[in-house]
Design a protein that fits this description.
Blueprint lengths: L1 H17 L1 H7 L7 E6 L6 H5 L6 E6 L13 H12 L4 E7 L3 H7 L8 H6 L4 H8 L6 H20 L3 H8 L4 E7 L6 E5 L4 E4 L18
Parallel strand pairs: 1-2, 1-3, 3-4
Antiparallel strand pairs: 4-5, 5-6
Helix pairs in contact: 4-9, 5-8, 7-8
Length: 219
């Protein structure tokens, strides 16, 4: 904790004064345009990767960047999604997986979770991705995990579309879904192209999106 407290003291004495007007404005309101759903992994920091200041992102983080399908017993993820889409009126949702994900590695390698039953139950929300990934022939263990990360992003995009607030916002053409995979070593991001369920380099395909799928304009 010593390092963390020292970090706060540095923030309070150096960083905060440089952004005092921003924090005064944020003291009574927030207006993020993007809901960013990522893994809890310490190596992925949404605000750093997207270079957003405080107030720029509404963030949900959990093991495996999972969004349970909407159900009769809404949990914290469902409540946060609903609040972001309905109350904050975000225009975009990003579901972001990452390389070397511990949760996806455990699923891909069928790791026993008896010693972590809560984790095991939580990862059941990635079952559809697991089933698809198991149907694919992989060259090696590394590719199996990388594929699981991608399939999980696709699965969670499908899951979030079951949420009433999300369905309504999409129907009213005020919400776009994005599926990303962040590579820790290179700093690159691959984005899901919903037109063909493939991932492409975001740096070269900045307009790509997962859903709704953009239709070609008739000439």
């Amino acid at each position: 904790m010593k390092d963390i407290i020292e970090g706060f003291l540095k923030f309070h004495s150096e960083a905060y004064p440089k952004h005092v007007d921003l924090f005064k404005n944020l003291a009574t309101q927030q207006n993020p345009r993007t809901l960013f759903i990522s893994c809890s992994d310490s190596r992925l920091v949404p605000e750093l990767v997207t270079q957003r200041e405080p107030g720029g992102l509404f963030v949900i983080r959990n093991a495996g960047n999972i969004v349970p399908s909407y159900g009769p017993e809404p949990g914290g993820v469902s409540a946060s999604v609903e609040y972001a889409v309905t109350a904050l009126q975000v225009t975009d949702v990003v579901i972001c997986g990452h390389s070397d994900c511990g949760a996806m590695t455990a699923i891909a390698n069928c790791t026993c979770m008896e010693h972590m039953p809560a984790v095991g139950r939580w990862l059941k929300y990635a079952d559809s991705a697991r089933v698809v990934n198991e149907s694919i022939t992989h060259l090696n263990d590394s590719e199996r995990v990388a594929s699981m990360v991608r399939e999980n992003v696709i699965a969670q995009i499908d899951n979030i579309k079951t949420h009433p607030s999300v369905r309504l916002a999409i129907r009213e053409n005020r919400l776009t879904l994005h599926g990303w995979v962040y590579d820790i070593e290179t700093g690159g991001i691959d984005a899901l192209d919903g037109a063909n369920n493939t991932f492409v380099a975001l740096a070269e395909n900045t307009e790509v999106r997962a859903y709704p799928i953009a239709l070609p304009v008739a000439i």
